[in-house]
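_Per-residue structure_
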Amino acid sequence: MQAIGKKKWVIPAGHIPLQTTGKEPDFLSQDRIAILNTGMSTVKLKLTVYHPDQEPIENYILEIKGQRLRKIRINDLIDPFPVFLATDYALVIEAEHEVIIQFLRMNTGHRNVAIMGTMAYGTDG
């Protein structure tokens, strides 16, 4: 199958809640991205994290094999630096080849679990 999607994706509204009422790791408050690679070859991705009051943190490197889906918890990104909890952030994701990215948030800060999902913004620029 031919690769579909975009090479650059933007998620402008990240925020991992500090509070959680769920058991780790399944019900920990979290942000997550789902990456779909419909192409045949492995794709490398570079993530840059932006914050309102500090310089961007670059060079989070990920790979996804051809014709695979991979889900990544933003909470688990620790190299080159952990993503802060309870702090607004934005992601710019640059891929070698076209992929599709969805953004998900699970907020278990209250007893009623809330899950939200939306497509990231894909751009050709």
